[in-house]
Amino acid sequence: MIRNENIENLVKKYNENKLSHVFLIETNDKVQALKDIKELVKIINCQEPEFQEDCSKCNLCHLIETETLPSLEIIFPDGQAIKKSQMEALKQHFSSVPYLSKYNIYVINDVEKFNSSSANMMLKFIEEPEPNILGFLITNNRENVIHTIKSRCEIVQVNYEEENFCISDDLKNLAITYLTKIEVEKEKSIVYNKIVLDAKLDREDMIPFFKILLQIYLDFFKEKQAYEGLKILQKLSKKELLKRISLVLDCIERLNYNININLLLDDFVLRLEE
Fold first, then answer.
1. pLDDT tens-place string over residues 257-266
2. How far apart (Å, rounded) are the C-alpha atoms in residues 126 and 121?
């Protein structure tokens, strides 16, 4: 089910044969936007007269959902940038017509991270569009996207209301204990990740857990006196607190991409100690 009306409107454009060949999706939730784009891809590639979400007649929707459809390419930055080699691979991959779907479709996340060489490659790709190729470029701020790319896209504003997480007192207490271990005691924090958090947190708990950490750091940044055992955080400068807020936000975003939890927690601790 598509959650955003503006992406849903693209289905209508498709039915009216008015779909552009490349869209710039500006959104406040890149993860949910990608989910909605995949739902759109299912609808416009459906071989049945009428799309049904619970269809069991073919394997197409499963391939799209699991990102294993050969004619669907989803690209993330390689390190700090989208590289020329990634665009070369995309162009090569889409040099043939799709055989399981109607379109070859690419989705590029964090499109503001093109470097100069990959941006030039992208321009060539979208300036001479093939009739069977559709592109979706995702960003959280269109102003950071290279103008020559942005000007060649149809821009779609896609905003979502933030979901409210049901957070238990046990999870809040665990988050406070965790910060006590890594910020106050500063001993064996990576060991603590493995022994304690692995035993007490499921994957679905991780985003609410990090949102609690975020709220704690924000409260100290705003000079609220709310956590008796963490008063040591009052000695941190605004710059040091902003660093922690940025780290937590980065972890929350990475958690949406099925990252290894143990590696993420260890990376969080190590970057905190830098």
1. 767 887 888 8
2. 9
